[in-house]
Amino acid sequence: MSSGPLPTRLIFLSDLPTCSRDEKVRFLGCVSNYNVSTATLSLQHVYPASSPNAHVTAAVDVNIVLESLKHTDMQVGEWVNVMGYVQGIEGQKAERRGVKYGLGKGVSGDKVVKVQAVMLWSAGGVKVWEYEKALEMRKQVQVTEE
Predict the structure, then answer these.
(1) Is the dihedral of CA 13, 58, 64, 36 positive or negative?
(2) How far apart are CA 9 and CA 2, in angstroms?
(3) Which CA distances in Å does 91 have to 17, 96, 112, 114?
(4) Per-residue b or e along 47-65, where b marks 16 or more CB atoms closer than 10 Å to that residue's CB
(5) Alpha-carbon span 36 to 25, nearest angstrom
(6) Is 101 exposed, middle or buried (0-12, 13-18, 19+ CB in 10 A)?
(7) Could you tell me which of 12, 14, 16 has the C-alpha nearest to residue 53?
């Protein structure tokens, strides 16, 4: 039995509701809000649009990585990579504030999934559609290998 760190699963943000509590995940999301008092980033990524979880919001607790974050990592519209642990699903709906990349204004999401970040970094000039395509291909390969 290994006592090393758990492996990280690369997923779409919309896959968060299917994850187990304490599962270690990595995903890409667009900042829609930052709550200073709780050090919580709200992230969204409406993909795939046909998914029943397309409008999920990740409520990412950044308290333990706060000192390493740049102010740009918390700006609305910034795309960031998150590695962290799923903490559970909140029952309340989240107001979506982002307008970039089809995030619509004033639309309520279906679910809010809490994530404790252990790493967070800017996605820089990521081409979101290329990321989506690459991750879809990776998921298809994993399915065929199982």
Answers:
(1) positive
(2) 18
(3) 12, 16, 7, 11
(4) beeeeebbbbbbbbbbeeb
(5) 24
(6) middle
(7) 14
Which of 28-42, 59-73, 97-111 is least confident?
A: 97-111
Alpha-carbon separation of residue 5 from 13, 25, 81, 124, 133 (angstroms) = 22, 12, 19, 27, 28
Report the alpha-carbon distance of residue 16 to residue 114 in Å, rounded.
9
DSSP lists the bridge partners of residue 96 as: 107
What residues have CB less than 8 Å from 140, skipping those under 6 apart? Answer: none
Residue in the block written with tokens 């990740």:
58
Full-model pTM: 0.81
